[in-house]
Each structure stands twice: as C-alpha cells, then as structure tokens.
Design a protein that fits this description.
Layout (H helix, E strand, L loop, with lengths): L1 H19 L9 H20 L9 E6 L9 E6 L4 H21 L14 E5 L2 E5 L1
Antiparallel strand pairs: 1-2, 3-4
Helix pairs in contact: 2-3
C-alpha cells in the first residue's frame, strides 16, 4: 500500500516543480528586474507625455511607483486625450512589479509620505501638478 501513496506524492511533487518553472520572471537577476522596470517606466512616461489638455480634455493624476515602506514615489500627471485605460493598466502593472522587486531584493527607502497634488492645471495645453 505504500507504493501507490509514494507514486502519488512523486506525481504531485513533479507537478508542483513544473508549475513553478512556468513563471516568466523566474531566475531574473536584480539588474534584469531593474532594467525591466526602467523600460516600463519610460513607456509609461512617454505615453503620459503625449497627452494634451484643453477645453475637451481633463487633467488627472495617478500614484506612480511603489516605495518599499508603502505608498508611491510620485504622482503621474496626464490628460484624458490619451487612452487612459491603457495608461492606468500600465501604471498598475508597474506598481505591482516594483512592489515585488522591493520585496524580492529587500530594497529600502525613506518612509516619507508623498502627498498627491492638490489640483492639476492646464497650462499651454500641458497638465501641470499643483502642490
């Protein structure tokens, strides 16, 4: 009777082992993860910087980045002239990946709270944060 149990245990262990190898971020170095975050950050900032404001577009902001102590590093300013759903998804993904990076590599930072803008103005067709 011990043989069926040991076969079952071997099968379950094998499935567990194979399932953990499917993670695309497995075995990345700290530098690899930093590079991925840097590329994502540039893509996000480039998209946000293409936004314009005016009579038909509203200025907004979103928490950007994930500090190791909690909260965001900054607030990203953009307008509704771009695909805001895409931008918000990209930022959410970036924030999640940076939080995982912080945990994985025991990253430290100051624990200062970054306040959000009190408002966002449209100046010369560009959204500008006011603190």
């Amino acid at each position: 009777m011990k043989k069926p149990f040991s076969k079952l245990a071997l099968i379950l262990f094998s499935l567990l082992l194979f399932s953990t190898q499917c993670d695309e971020d497995t075995n990345l170095t700290k530098e690899d993860e930093e590079q991925q975050l840097a590329v994502l950050k540039i893509d996000i900032e480039e998209l946000a910087n293409t936004s314009i404001c005016g009579d038909t577009f509203e200025c907004k902001f979103i928490p950007f980045g994930s500090k190791p102590c909690g909260g965001s590093w900054t607030y990203l300013v953009y307008s509704t002239s771009i695909d805001t759903e895409q931008l918000e998804t990209m930022v959410e993904n970036y924030n999640r990946k940076e939080a995982l990076y912080n945990t994985e590599w025991n990253i430290a930072s100051d624990c200062a709270i970054v306040n959000p803008p009190t408002r966002v103005n449209c100046e010369n067709n560009t959204c500008v944060a006011v603190y």
